[in-house]
Design brief:
Layout: E1 9-10, E2 15-16, H1 17-37, E3 42-43, H2 47-62, H3 67-74, E4 86-95, E5 100-108, E6 114-124, H4 127-144, E7 149-154, H5 157-163, H6 174-183, E8 188-193, H7 200-208, E9 217-219, H8 227-233
Parallel strand pairs: 4-7, 7-8
Antiparallel strand pairs: 1-2, 3-4, 4-5, 5-6, 6-9
Helix pairs in contact: 1-2, 2-3, 4-6
Length: 234
């Protein structure tokens, strides 16, 4: 009760602790129930990120003051790249009950036009590792379709830190070293982290990888199952 009623500032005075505490406690419980009771449950959004999204809804509905989440809310849509560039969004999905992992990615132009998409199953691995596989596949495909100015976005902050050498997690792995080799090729790639809301289309595409096996599939045109999300983001 002390936590729920607490109005103390949190994270440098940017959030009310009571609102954050209640939302994240509920999400921890919901996540546990889903993992235990739902064999098909797939973790596509971290508890922290989902909590921020729900706090935005709390703020708009009940007037709860959470200043940093307002900043997140302003940026929670896909934004096209600059003219002459393409935007590559990558994401991954991991089944909580069996760790079956798949990746996906989509390349779009400045007006949101579809250039290329891909998805594939990568086996059983952790969330962090499969996010790195998504980036590796994304870079490989972007190079293959002759993209040379690329804005690469993902919604996993730890992956961004690893690639910027700000984290020791998996830093010496062969996969990370292979990604750095791709980044050193004769092209310009800007890597950045974005909220999950900016990655909606590719989130759906990554989930499709479970159905395509190891060889995966590429999409010169958007698959029908995500056309509505593509139109929404555009």
């Amino acid at each position: 009760m002390d936590n729920l009623s607490c109005t103390d500032a949190w994270m440098g005075g940017r959030m009310e602790w009571g609102a954050c505490f209640s939302v994240w406690c509920w999400l921890l419980w919901k996540f546990r129930c889903s993992r235990v009771l739902d064999e098909d449950f797939v973790e596509r959004e971290g508890i922290y990120d989902r909590g921020c999204r729900l706090l935005v809804e709390c703020e708009s509905t009940f007037g709860v003051t959470v200043a940093p989440v307002r900043e997140l809310h302003r940026r929670q849509c896909w934004v096209g790249p600059a003219r002459g560039w393409v935007k590559l969004n990558v994401d991954a999905a991991v089944g909580v009950s069996d760790d079956r992992a798949s990746v996906g990615g989509v390349i779009r132009g400045a007006d949101g036009e579809w250039i290329f998409g891909f998805t594939r199953f990568v086996g059983r691995c952790t969330v962090l590792l499969v996010e790195l596989w998504a980036m590796f596949d994304g870079l490989r495909h972007a190079w293959a379709v002759n993209c040379r100015r690329v804005e690469l976005e993902m919604d996993n902050k730890e992956v961004e830190r690893i690639l910027k050498h700000d984290s020791e997690s998996l830093g010496a792995s062969a996969l990370v070293m292979s990604i750095h080799e791709w980044l050193r090729k004769d092209w310009v790639v800007i890597v950045r982290h974005v909220p999950r809301e900016c990655n909606g289309v590719v989130d759906s595409l990554a989930a499709l990888g479970q159905d395509y096996g190891w060889q995966g599939s590429t999409f010169p045109a958007p698959p029908w199952g995500i056309v509505h999300r593509l139109d929404d983001e555009r």
